[in-house]
Amino acid sequence: MDAELNRRNTLDAVDAFNAGDLDRYLASYAPYAVIHGLPEHLPPTVAGHREFLTAMRAALPDFKAEVHTLIVENDTSAARLTYTGTHRGVLQGVPPTGRRLRWDAMNFRRFNDEGLTVERWILNDNIALLHQLGRV
Question: Could you name the domain of life of the organism this protein comes from (predicted)?
Answer without folding.
Answer: Bacteria
